[in-house]
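Anyone opening a protein record will find just a pair of labelled lines. A complete record is shown below as an example:
=====
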Amino acid sequence: MKIAVLGGLGMQGKAALLDLTRSEQVREVVCADCSLKDWDKLGAIADVAKIKPVQVDGASKQALVNLFKQGFDAVIDLLPLPFMVNAFEAALEARVPLVSTNYGKPIHRLHEPAQAAGVGLMPECGLDPGIDLVICGHAVRQFDELHVLNSYCGGVPEKRACTNPLNYKISWNFDMMLRSQKRPSAFISEGKQVEVPADQQHETDMIHTIRFPGLGELEAIPNGDAVFYTDLLNVTSGIQQAGRYTLRWPGWCAFWRPLKRLGLLSDEPVLGLDRTVTPHQFMVKLLEPQLQYQDGEKDLVAMYNVFSGIKDGRLKTLKTSLVIERDLKSGLYGMSLGVGFPVSIVAQMIAAGEISGKGVLNPALDVPYAPFMAALAERGIVVKEEVE
């Protein structure tokens, strides 16, 4: 296989490169990024003999098309979100399969053109969304009636790394993390669909806590459109409760609730100041340097899914849990591994013909559960199941 990784020198890109170089099926990998200044550091964590560095401007669709036409079996897109549409449109034009970790809404319109071109485009194929969707797609098939579908995922520091008032440190793009706190959510409660405006996301009546196996109490914040996925899986009509939630150590919402009310995450410049810096930009620059992991500290990815319903006339509950932690040898965060490994696995599945669908695909429907879970387990990422 010959596979390209866009954004290969980013945190998640390095994890994808590491995984691809370990694969006997992959003969060549192209690491494409806007800057190659960190290329020399890659050799400390991956075998660079298989990797060819290429400088490319992700803002240029034509530059991506030119790259994609160099005989790739699949492309992995780990560029910043603003370049997502460019990457997918370029893949369609070059007729090469592309896998991304971003939510797929911006490129749903490409479904029919991609079908006509015979190209498979797979967004939402990282951690969350990604691993969670493969689990959900499999779980709904284990019930005759599904009544509950709750999905939880988040990144937190291990307890000994909780050295600041937030009990949080940065394991992915901090600007994007803050922006994820400003998007509306949709969930189902008592059979009714509920919309959660972004400004109410951290309010007391919107949050709850769960007991996570081995970690204890975590705070759950609504953060995603659960109804889109119950519709996708064709189970909305029977659902009584469904939600997608971010997990944090307790106290997270108590910190952010007043700050959001006071406009500290606003994207509007502050009147009366002689610069155009927004409160959001200020918060990124102020907090980012203070929330870094130190050498020897681990981040933890915690994923928990709960499904309840009827099977063969009896009540049934299925719970799955997953913990990924930082690899101190390579320095790669658990979050990076949880995103980079799944996208690499799926890109290899597509290149091998194990996933053959065309159009805009989704992991919940199009990634085969057993081979995917086996591939994760080979990489030390094990999903535990509990059935009641």
About this structure: The CA atoms of residues 21 and 49 lie 8 Å apart. DSSP finds 13 helices and 16 strands in the chain. The longest helix spans residues 334-351. The mean pLDDT is 95.
